[in-house]
């Protein structure tokens, strides 16, 4: 009987294929007749509606004889439809006495959200939140600004409560003058300063004023205070302060950061970004930490209740513990050494971390923070992973206001946040207080996190009824009362402890270290990788995928960049001033500010009419517009696309060529005249 069914399916496939070939041939013949009739109608000057009707009538004159045996054709269609639903499973059930069910009755597709990341937050690279305006050049280097002894920038107006002199720093930077009118390097007033706001600046977004400061004295005194003989070669400062009071941080902090090669975020902290990865269980071996150290951190027993005694036992992670990406280890070692330098050399205290390698950081506290939020969550480093992500409890990621689907968050050493973060240095513009640890959650409360994290399955196994229930594809709420998940555990310690798992792993970072999207260099390589995979999959039409990628990604990018190029501004490479239209002079026409003595202290510009005369550059380059044209043409030539997409690409590529190339002026060579 089973053999007869297989033979019937084979015959049905042949009959259906034969009928499809007949239909395709008929449609081609009808298309030829319809086009000829429509062409004749257009030549007679008929309208669109009449032309279409004439074409359809002409095509209908070719009769459709139908299948050779209509009854048989209908029977095989029904047989094929039944087989597409039941599949081969019905035959297997008849051949075997064992109960058989579909192992995967439903297929779920997915798409990549974003590539993984584990890297410092360093764009743009800034070591010090101290403004040097344009004196530092394009790279904002403190050494370049030092070429001029006086620095004139906009900073908050503060006065020393001790010597009554004006100083923009939190501590008075002026040198003490002796009885002979002489000052000595490193001997400063050091008095506390108070902010004074002029009546015209009370309601301003930024309340600073232009001030002149002796940068050479300030820097020399700072180096003496922290015991540094020479200024590091690369100390990058801010161009201007964006905070409301515009009070700079001590320049010593920037020097110490530059000595360790550490950038600073706009809130004064040192951050490392990592993709979120949820985890509930691990072994000491997986996180590269000895079981003795973990036992000291509170992991006294494994998840089965046995006392911890080796590196292969399975442990349940505490809700606020964190497994850090290994490539962040050396980075945080440098950050810890910077904080120790700061405590000893700047604050005059004792070092806190005293670390030499990343293993010494295990057990130290960190603050984790998600972008677009203003609340950090306290955590603790317990180990390291070889993947590009940070492993933590699902409730911990949810406490950062994340839903555990591969978002990218930052962590910082807790002492760094306590020492260097201040609300006073946050930008005063819209969104300036986002992505800043304005508050710190010290204890995770499961009832206060997003409900999505409460749906995490916490059972140890699935019973037979569960698999049988899935055959009817019920709504999850219908089975919620019979399942074990976090929400049902709220109100007890079981909400954060005692979660189960069904399958153990030997390495939580097993698999590719990096996705192909990051290992492949060019966009052509990425497209070839995606489409070559599509060639291997029978369920994928590569031509459709190529057309979809071009329409949804390449073409919108090309259109957007083309519009941006035609509407762009030009920017001065010297003073960074931007122009809506190119000045007739061909260079920057902004007047220079006076330097030296006289009226320059009041911001008066030179009367001679001196101009910046800096070179002007486009803000959107030709390469940014052309970047996807080459790969788009490669995809079309290699994999093919539909005619509409091809014509759209050719039209846009022609627009780009017309914009950048002069149609009247053509570069020719001697070979063109041979």
Fold and architecture overview:
The protein is an alpha+beta fold and 674 residues long. It has 19 helices and 21 strands. The chain has helices at 2-43, 48-60, 70-86, 89-95, 142-145, 215-226, 251-260, 291-296, 329-346, 394-399, 414-420, 451-454, 464-470, 516-519, 523-536, 542-566, 622-626, 629-639, 643-660, and strands at 118-120, 128-131, 150-155, 158-160, 175-177, 183-188, 193-195, 209-214, 237-238, 272-278, 281-282, 315-316, 321-325, 365-369, 375-385, 389-392, 408-413, 439-441, 570-572, 578-579, 616-618. Helix 7 runs antiparallel to helix 9. The longest helix has 42 residues, at 2-43. The termini are far apart. The model has no long low-confidence stretch (mean pLDDT 89).
